[in-house]
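Q: Is it fine to ask for two folds in a single conversation?
A: Yes, each is treated on its own. Send the first.
Q: Here.
A: Result:
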Amino acid sequence: MISFTLNGQLRQVDAEPDKPLLWTLREDLNVVGPKFGCGVAVCGACTVHVDGTPVRSCSMATGDVAGKSVVTIEGLSQGQLHAVQRAWIENQVPQCGYCQPGFIMAAAALLKANPKPTDRDIDDALSNICRCGTYGAIRRAVHRAAAILGGAS
């Protein structure tokens, strides 16, 4: 059994330690916000936070999160939408929406570390891939979320 905190709740899962965290979340714990995109940690559709750091869950072993805190898009907001989620809606970012949970998780981590990011900061931190090409809307939404959070970039 592997124990870790998932979206604020202690969870135990009977999974092989080398099983990718993404599949443990989706198959064993029914947490489907993180998406499978590439399987090699390039696209970012599977981004979650582990102890506050954004990671690509497709390439992280479940055993590596033992005793740690994992937050998915489902656990990002506490009672109301997170500022990044609000900004995403205001800026109508999604087209197909498949990659958006990963982008939102990456953006939330960026704004926690850098409350006033420049366009360059955003481009560097959000290395996720959007096949619909909504990068301009994503950048605007990150700036709007910074303003909502009081950083006003």
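Q: Second one now.
A: Result:
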Amino acid sequence: MKDMQAHLEKLRSDAAECGLISNLATNLEKKELFARLAEHLTVLASEVERAIAKGDGT
């Protein structure tokens, strides 16, 4: 379960970083790419959270 929690924290961190890059980007393609990455990583983090809550990581 510790490994899943570590992965969750990494996903959240990466999502936040991608969101920041998207917000700061001046190039429209880069802005959109990092916004999509942030959204995708957020969805993945939610899935890991659900698995942890259900106890699927044991």
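Q: Anything structural to flag on that second result?
A: Two points. The chain has a mean pLDDT of 94. The helical segments are 2-24, 28-54.
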